[in-house]
Amino acid sequence: MTEVLLIVGIAVAIFVGYNIGGATAGVSFGPAVGAHVLSKLGAAVLMSIFFFVGGWLIGPAVVETLGEDIIEAEGMLTLETGIAILFFIGAALFFGNFFGVPASTSMTAVGAIAGLGLATGTLNWAQMGEIVSWWVVAPIVAFWVSGVIGRYFYPRINQWVAISRRETHLWVVDRSSTIPRVSAVEGTERREVVGSLIVVAIGCYMAFSSGASNVANAVAPLVGSNALAFEEGVLTTFSNMEWGVIIAGVAVTIGAFTIARRTLETMGNDITNLPLTAAVIVMTVSATIVSLLSAIGIPVQLVIVATMSIIGLGWGRATRTTTVSDAVRGKEKTAVSVGALTAEEEGEQAPAIGEEAVEDIPKASELFDPSTTARVILIQNFVPVLATIGAYLTFRFVPIFGF
Question: What pTM was computed for the model?
């Protein structure tokens, strides 16, 4: 019976990882795919590799938090309850992926585990308080760091780097010889090549940070129940934790090559016309915050951190219409709009601080598609709630778990 439950548990964990791959690939490589710098197949390959590296090097710290620290009572997280938790995580994420929206996997996983704690009265409120506190602090930090960059550094970065979107693919593959050769399209400028490599590199960094934070969401219940600690045979080559990371990596790879095509389309083309230079800054800030918090065992909602980074970057760029002294004295008003990120074309020099008119700042609606943005925000907030309520009701009222 135990072997059957373990097989079921691994299958459900793979289902969760599959949906994580679909959700996080869009966030990591959507800008590169939308700009035709990288194909969806290339995004899937890079997502698989760097997610696994991040999960292997940093992920165990977050796995320990989710698998051992949120629930106070020892032995409460059994193989049976782990399977149920994974089911609710996977079902909720699948709901988001079905609509092409990459939901917060960390919030969904924490919500499902918290549902067990609430239903049984074993929730570690101190640990939950720490996690939720960081959920509040991390987006604020992302906003202000990006705001400073937007006001003082973004125009110069946009002028120097000038990463632009393309209507056609930048790279072509020559398969006429035994070993395929990849080269840039004829007529491509050197700046375009450098810019495209930067976009892809930052996407890999995002995938790494995603692995560091999200590998726990797929396997923490199994690792926490010690279900993967094999006692004999070739399976003892890896530890309980290492098997968890391997299973998560395989599952995410499957998701990246399949269902991720929908989220790559949404994040790359539908939701925003965010300039690629701005996207690179947002991705760098977000990935750094997530990686640092993952290293201390805090599961972070990458999607929300990235959203606040976009808003902060746009706000910082918009404040360049007035100097600090004029703003303090109330002489000038600032048009607070993320649309400010489109005020200049790539490579164009921006006016000095205080020399730009408020009327020159584009509105937010010129950068975001309002209907798509509203749909994304609604589903992203609904998915974790769905997992929490489902887990709570199941563990509270279904007698099979014996609580």
Answer: 0.81
